[in-house]
Design a protein that fits this description.
about 230 residues, alpha+beta, Structural Genomics Hypothetical 15.5 Kd Protein In mrcA-pckA Intergenic Region, Chain A, Pseudouridine synthase, 2 domains, 6 helices, about 20% helix, binds uracil
């Protein structure tokens, strides 16, 4: 992995703060100062900041296939929490990188690494989320262009960021967005006079669902490093 990423993962520093300490010559790899933040390092290397050896923390990274009528919360409310499906130690320390509504199904990423989830959620990262949407009314021809240009949602100051619409059938579409405003997909279709009747998240970044409803698995190292 890149040196700046390693420094971030093993300290409380942000990416730009990590770059600064690297450029300042405060980081050593196997005993030599490295000032290139993009240098490739391995966890077996001895990497030190200001003379202190850094160790990556053992964060947990999980993908889950959320069932209908469950909630993305750490506690049960009107519906059971998705954490009922994840029977591991200290599950209460985990949080969800982009919640889904109770009536939305599909891909949920779960972790205890706040920086990693920020990379997924923050619109700055441009991380694409793909939703399969069932609609009440036939999709109008102009919706694709409207979503590309951004639509104004009620109560929001800024229009939505450019979104891609892929029409699958008269009342079924795939929508790709890079932000996650409250009820965003439902509000986007409401803004163009339609209504979402079913919603399923298929993909986040390059991670697609490969497990059955209610199942979960740990992400591979390569998958974690995608974000
Ligand atoms: N947009 C919504 O409206 N609901 C979700 O659950 C996810 C995205």
């Amino acid at each position: 992995m890149r040196l700046d990423k390693f420094v971030c993962k093993s300290t409380e520093l942000t990416r730009s703060e990590a770059t600064q300490v690297i450029h300042a010559g405060n980081v050593m790899v196997n005993g030599s100062v490295v000032i290139n933040e993009a240098a490739q390092v391995h966890e077996n290397n001895t990497i030190a900041l200001d003379g202190q050896r850094l160790k990556t923390r053992n964060f947990r990274y999980i993908v889950m296939h959320k069932p209908l009528d469950t909630i993305c919360s750490n506690v049960d409310e009107a519906y059971p929490s998705i954490f009922n499906y994840i029977d591991i130690e200290k599950a209460s320390e985990l949080h969800i990188a982009g919640r889904l509504d109770a009536d939305t199904t599909g891909l949920v990423l779960i972790t205890d690494d706040g920086r990693w989830s920020f990379n997924i959620i923050s619109p700055i990262s441009q991380c694409e989320k793909v939703y399969r949407v069932g609609l009440r009314d036939v999709i109008a021809d102009d919706v694709s262009l409207k979503f590309e240009n951004g639509v104004q949602l009620q109560g929001e100051k800024q229009p939505t960021l450019p979104a891609k619409l892929n029409v699958i059938g008269p009342k079924e579409v795939l929508l790709t967005i890079t932000e996650g405003k409250f009820h965003q997909v439902k509000r986007m279709f409401a803004a163009v006079g339609n209504r979402v009747v079913s919603l399923h998240r298929e993909k986040i970044g390059e991670i697609s669902l490969d497990i059955n409803v209610g199942q979960w698995r740990y992400l591979t190292v390569d998958e974690v490093n995608l974000f």
